[in-house]
Amino acid sequence: MDPTTTELGFPVWLRINHFINLFCIFLLIRSGLQILADHPKLYWNDHCRPGNEWVKFGKKKMPTNRLFTSMDEAEDVSPVFAIPGGHHNLGAGRHWHFLIVPLWILNGLCYVGLLFATGQWRRLIPTSWSIFPEAWNSLLTFASLTVPPESSFHPYDPLQQLVYTAVVFLLGPLMIATGLSQSPALIARYPWYPRIFGGRQGARSLHFIGLMLLIFYVLSHLTMVILVHFPRDVETMFSMFGPPGLLSVAAFLSASLALLAVIGFHIAATLYTRRHPRSFQEHAAKIVEPLMRFFFGKLRSRQHFDRQNVTAMHHVNGYPPENGDYRRMAETGFHDWRLRIGGLVEQPLELSLNDLQQMPKHEQTVRHNCIQGWTGIATWAGVEVREVLQRCHPKLEAKWIVFHAFVQDEYAPDHYYEAFTLEEVKGPQTILAYEMNGRPLPFEHGAPCRLRLETKVGYKMVKYLTHIDLVASLDQVGFGYGGYREDHQFYGKVGSI
Ligand SMILES: Nc1nc2c(c(=O)[nH]1)N[C@H]1C(S)=C(S)[C@@H](COP(=O)(O)O)O[C@H]1N2
Ligand SMILES: [Mo]
């Protein structure tokens, strides 16, 4: 090996970079497990047919004789493994994931940049094919449970070198690429992209397999550090003479402190997130929302799935309203139902189902992406929101458009609603749908009319619409966080990923 590699040492930037990476990875793993727990089933195709998962965690069994919703499928998860842990804390788990991802990617880019700028790459990236047989020999040595002599670490042994290169240049990019393909906005704009991974569920499964490899890597890496370096450091600690020994002691202490700091941060962050979910949501939103709007906000859906491809058993989330008004209207085929469009508009509207059917009809065969993880493909048809907006003439002060649903249950007065900026709903494939797969919208999917906005995660697409309001601010709408799930489950209000 190139003799200069041993002289490279571990410069300060490398140590800091490594520390930030460690900090990020543990948070990404724990928030990732929180997200997974909300739909702990993995599939290889985007239909997510119940029972068709290749792996499933948790013991829940879904009924086959009555309607269940995907919220019923969520599992609790221990705060030891997940941040913040507990029941359906998906919103907070996502905030953590999205807070850390940009930091982790930035740190990774700095690392790779500096690696090449400083010559450090020479000891990381193998330059000869002989690395493979050498790594194999090294693996055999480890398999016989002996630690190779220190001389074979210069400073990395061949197996280490191969694994590090693979983690940095294969596993890292794979996690980013498959993570990105979970964004409804990105994959609605570039439908070819998730196909690289066999669809969004293929990507989700690979993201999970990557997570498992990452956990395995982190655990074995830590074990190696403890087995190989720890005894050597302890030895020097107890024979404290000469500057090299002292340096080693300092390194050992600072590494231990760094690890303790990460553990301490996790405990504090978990407790804070669990005890103050609202304040965490508000703080996280200040960073996550602008980033999400910046990277995904301008993307417009261009999906055209083959109609042959629709999902036979499309999942459901959110039960049909259990209230008298709704039931009465349903009995007469929603003859009396009117969609009211009001608020800051010059021309308030009241549209019957028939009025909607008389307007230009738009049809789209698209993938639905629930925030919990499942997908399904369906053909939806209805009226473009931009068409309705043209007819009602929004006033200049109107900034937000809020879609309201029937009260779920007359004894529980909060109703489902979701808000968007006016810009967000002006794109294509944003419709008030009254048909699904060529039939009137079924009850469980939002009869008589629901929103479809294909660059968003499912929770933004309000079913069982009653009225649409244009407002200048969200302060007076619900609790003011931009939607029912934002108010009650601490989700973010953008929902582009
Ligand atoms: N009124 C209402 N709309 C709703 C919900 C709900 O609970 N109530 N759930 C949302 C969520 S989280 C999802 S994923 C989609 C599910 O649509 P589907 O049931 O047609 O599959 O509806 C959204 N719209
Ligand atoms: Mo959802």
Q: Could you characterize the architecture of this molecule?
A:
- The protein folds into two domains: 3-296, no CATH class; 307-489, Sulfite Oxidase, Chain A, domain 2 (Alpha-Beta Complex), CATH 3.90.420.
- Helices cover 46% and strands 14% of the residues.
- The protein has 15 helices and twelve strands.
- It has helices at 4-7, 12-37, 90-118, 121-124, 131-143, 158-180, 184-189, 192-195, 200-238, 243-275, 277-296, 324-331, 353-358, 385-392, 484-489, and strands at residues 41-42, 55-56, 338-343, 349-352, 362-369, 375-384, 400-409, 412-421, 430-436, 439-440, 450-453, 465-471.
- The protein has a five-stranded mixed beta sheet with strand order 4-3-12-7-8.
- It is elongated and about 85 Å long.
- The structure holds the ligand Nc1nc2c(c(=O)[nH]1)N[C@H]1C(S)=C(S)[C@@H](COP(=O)(O)O)O[C@H]1N2 and molybdenum atom.
- Molybdenum atom (MO) binds next to loops.
- The site of ligand MTE has 17 residues, from loops.
